[in-house]
Amino acid sequence: MLQSSRQPMPAESVDPEHKAFLDDYVGRLHRATAVDDGIFARISATRASWLRTREQGGRVIFVGNGGSAGIASHLAIDLAKNASVPALCFSDASMMSCLANDYGFEDWIAHAVRLNARAGDCLVAISSSGRSKNILNAVAQARKMKLDVITLSGMHTDNPLRNLGDVNFWVDSRSYNIVETTHQFWMMAAIDLVIGRAEYPAS
Hints:
This protein is α/β, with parallel strands linked by helices and 203 residues long.
């Protein structure tokens, strides 16, 4: 077996500029994920909404774009598999391209909701900026169908998604990666609150 001749880099040899950047970066994450009773109440309300959705025979539908779509898919899988709450994410490329082609990108998720959602479902709408037209239109469609809505946004205090849900989460950060990480952390906390444990087997 070939072995590398390179010696491991000592942990203490960090470029001072990199350390300054990372100290600031981690500080931003700590501030964004800092919780208070308001966040605890929203996470608890999210748990209640998801359990009510399950009791009504509904499903939790997660939607997002880009990184938020990846988070939506991850959350849907974990909520269904680990917390036994039926969940799905509109991530099928054929559905996306079909509906975007027929109705336009800004309306494809709204039409996915129209075609697939039913009474008793809950929509979780994720947009870091809170300004994505397709997410806003999906929330409007969910409201027409009288679905529960949970929103996750960040960036500016006046973003239009911030107050459209029954439960609204907002991250006080202008960094997309910090906002997305915080969204996932809060929703994972809600999933684990449904389960009632922070540690459990993967299957």
